[in-house]
Amino acid sequence: MDISDSSQKVALGHGSGGAMMQQFITEQLLPALGGQSAEGLEDAATLSISAADIAFTTDSFTVQPLFFPGGDIGSLAVHGTVNDLAMRGATPRYLSLGLIIEEGLPLDTLRRIVQSIGQAARDCDVIIACGDTKVVGRGAADAIFINTSGIGECGDHIPSVTAATPGDRVLVNGTLGDHGVAVMMAREDLQISSAVESDTAPLHTLVGAMLEAGGEAVHTLRDLTRGGLAAGVNEIVAASGVGITLEAATIPVRPEVGGACEVLGLSPYAVANEGKLVAMVAPEAAEKVLAAMRAHPLGRNACIIGEVAAEPVATVRLHTPIGTTRILELPAGELLPRIC
Ligand code: MG
Fold first, then answer.
1. Domain count for the chain
2. Is 7 among the domain residues?
3. Which residue range forms the structural domain that includes residue 241?
4. CA atoms of 234 and 257, how far apart (whole Å)
């Protein structure tokens, strides 16, 4: 069977379908992910970890379209889990990879996704230690769903969503809303402004630089994925029992993202990012951490956008450029489905 034939599609069940997938896994998936041979595959991987504490997380990725400006579902599935580990100050070490593939997915598409996963894992210096592939019938999944779990090694200081403290400065590492708008525009085939690219990126080296500069003064880190900045800061004020006041004029949003959000009826503060974080940093260390962020390629546009307040508890206030104050609510419902 010629699995390099570009007309081939993933097929369900026995016979040619099962044999084809097996051949694909052996000849293409395993080499793309790290060069293991099928003969050497054990039932479970064994991992060597030296840290006293490990961070462990899981996430599933269902983005549609599978390929979008700036990334694809494969790199997203690696970055998303690496970033969740990074938010606890952990060095990402191992990922698991689960693929749920819909019958009929072109083999070429699967090949591109798997190569992207392998490249992203190498870029992040993480090992894909175990995995699983299932093919389901037409309509039982939409093209492909990916699950990644991740294990990372914690350092001496573990930032927490419960640790934001009144007086902390609120920092972000760059422009907001890029990923969600890039996916929406690719999906709707909207040509309403110049191209917007997803910001999908692994944040662990940026976090490493922030922790080196600020140490224990970096109280809280949150990646701004689904629900964007609005969800991130609302989750922090609820968990830490504090309030946050943000200055809208200081929150970076690309003009083309702001314009697209206006057309789509969205707030750029509630749109998903895949390479952005918010940090709560003690005031005496904030400028030093900000400088470390700006010296990193993924933090060039970092800025301070507000401050943690003692009151009102569990509330995010937004000062607008025209001098009014409004409450930045937790985004209600599923505003943007299938964004990650
Ligand atoms: Mg997260």
1. 2
2. no
3. 169-327
4. 22
Distance 84 CA to ligand 1 centre (A): 5
Give per-residue pLDDT as tens, 276-326: 999 999 999 999 999 999 999 999 999 999 999 999 999 999 999 999 999
pTM, rounded to two decimals:
0.95
pLDDT tens-digit map of 83-95: 999 999 999 999 9
Tell me the CA–centroid distance for residue 172 and ligand 1, in Å: 14
- Distance (angstroms) between ligand 1 centre and the Cα of 271 equals 14
For tokens 């990922």, name the residue. Answer: 95
Partners of 278 in the β-ladder: 172, 222
Q: How far is the CA of 223 from the centre of ligand 1 (A)?
A: 5
Instruction: Give 195-250 pLDDT, tens digit per residue.
Output: 899 999 999 999 999 999 999 999 999 999 999 999 999 999 999 999 999 999 99
| Range scoring the smallest mean pLDDT among 11-15, 19-23, 26-30, 166-170 | 11-15
CA 54 to ligand 1 centroid distance, Å: 16
Residues 74 and 173 in one domain: no
Residue 270 CA, ligand 1 centroid: distance in Å = 15
75 touches 182 (CB < 8 A): no
Q: Give the distance (Å) from ligand 1 centre to CA of residue 40.
A: 34
- Asked if 149 contacts 57 with a C-beta cutoff of 8 angstroms, the reply is yes
Query: Is the same domain home to 256 and 121?
Result: no
Written as one string, the DSSP assignment of 224-282 is --TTHHHHHHHHHHHHHT-EEEEEGGGS---HHHHHHHHHHT--TTSS--SS-EEEEE-
Amino acid found at 93: R
Q: Which residues contact residue 326 at a Cβ distance below 8 angstroms, ignoring those fewer than 6 apart? A: 317, 318, 320
